[in-house]
Automatic annotation (TrEMBL):
Residues 113-376 form the Amine oxidase domain. This is Amine oxidase domain-containing protein. The lineage of its organism: Eukaryota, Viridiplantae, Streptophyta, Embryophyta, Tracheophyta. It comes from Arabis nemorensis. It holds the Pfam family NAD_binding_8. GO terms for molecular function: oxidoreductase activity.
Length: 383
């Protein structure tokens, strides 16, 4: 006699048999939001990231001062604002979980030509949110949710399409197989870009011939590079009346903020972060290329950026810690999928998401991650 299987059990078995396995490449906010959304809807998700931890440009940098004490810096995105209702719903959820808080400080703009502040932004302006205790706290929490497996220190060097039931085979930089997947989400615009070759010396992970239409949109996205300078002072910079300021009429600096005034941060020292102008960063890259910079070059950049900060007349003391970091493709200069919010190839179950799709900011990255997840979930429901 054959065993009788109840409709409920049969439905469960059917659900298990068709559960999608999706690889998400990159653990920045776009990839992390996508992975979390997929996992909450029953998809098996594995995140791969070449870095030591999650965050992308919302990473937090850990440094050690000469006294041996730990220094933490949000050396990428300083904060974010949201206006879209879908993004706002996520932010409210993150606030309730204690991984996001509003940064309630006064901001302004400083003009180097006149050496004066042009204006001070009051609290009536758009709310500024930060991750707590670091900007990477959001991605870190999302990457460790139930149903999400995160593998760090593993860059994906090759995505192979096989005409089989589970079509995607991913390989790392050593040529080792790291898994087979039904679908792939790439949150890195360099996955099919010549820029990947310029940085690594290897061909892009995704063969252009597989996705010619997407490749055309992704190959030549103009980017605006940026250097960030991390500074730590023993005493507060009391002559600066704001905690975040944009700069006008400076060839070197575009932004500065006091990182230690954010919620949940250590106040053992006063830590500031400066951002360079894209023109300054481009001038350096034109001389050095995109390969890893020497300590000598980074020290020179640090000195030039800090000297410009001093020229504002706002800084009266020297930092006890100073270190520069290069963001080679910090900000996309154009958006490639404003309406769709992500790039999607239905025949390959491949989504590409990131701020380069919607708008060059954290909210754009969030919305693109949500859109990519939606595409994969529509596919999953059809299985």
């Amino acid at each position: 006699m054959s065993a009788t299987i109840s409709p409920a059990i049969r439905k469960q078995m059917s659900s298990v048999s068709v559960a999608m396995k999706v690889a998400v490449i990159g653990s920045g906010i776009s990839g992390a939001v996508c992975a979390s959304t997929l996992a909450r809807n029953g998809v098996s998700v594995t995140i791969f990231d070449s870095g030591r931890g999650p965050g992308g440009r919302m990473s937090q940098r850990r440094e050690i001062g000469e006294d041996g004490k730990e220094l933490m810096f949000d050396h990428g995105a300083p904060f974010f604002s949201v206006s879209n209702s879908d993004a706002m719903a996520l932010v409210h959820d993150w606030e309730s979980r204690g991984i996001v808080s509003e940064w309630k400080q006064v901001f302004g703009s400083f003009d180097f030509a006149s050496n004066k502040f042009l204006g001070i932004q009051q609290e009536g302006d758009a709310k500024k949110y930060v991750g707590v205790p670091g900007m990477n706290s959001i991605s870190k929490a999302l990457c460790h949710e139930s149903g999400v497996k995160s593998i760090f220190g593993t860059g994906i060097a090759k995505l192979e399409w096989l005409e089989e039931e589970v079509p995607w085979l991913l390989k790392d930089s050593q040529g080792e197989n790291v898994g087979r997947f039904d679908g792939v989400v790439a949150s890195d615009k360099n996955i099919v870009s010549p820029r990947f070759t310029q940085v690594t010396g290897r061909p892009p992970p995704l063969d252009l011939k597989l996705v010619p239409e997407l490749a055309t949109k992704l190959q030549h996205i103009p980017v605006l590079p940026c250097f960030s300078l991390m500074l730590a002072f023993k005493e507060p910079l009391s002559s600066i009346p704001v905690k975040g300021l944009s700069f006008k009429n400076s060839e070197i600096l575009s932004w500065a903020h006091c990182d230690s005034t954010k919620p949940g941060r250590s106040t053992d020292s006063e830590r500031w972060i400066l951002h360079s102008t894209p023109d300054y960063a481009n001038s350096v890259i034109a001389k050095t290329g995109l390969q890893k910079l020497s300590n000598e070059t980074l020290n020179q950049i640090s000195e030039e950026m800090f000297k410009e900060f001093q020229c504002s007349g706002l800084v009266s003391s020297l930092p006890f810690f100073m270190k520069a970091h290069r963001w080679g493709s910090a900000f996309p200069a154009k958006s490639v999928a404003v309406e769709e919010r992500c790039l999607w190839d239905r025949s390959r179950n491949l989504a590409i998401c990131g701020d380069f799709c919607v708008s060059p900011n954290v909210e754009g990255a969030i919305l693109s991650g949500l859109a990519a997840a939606s595409k994969l979930l529509q596919t999953s429901s059809c299985l």
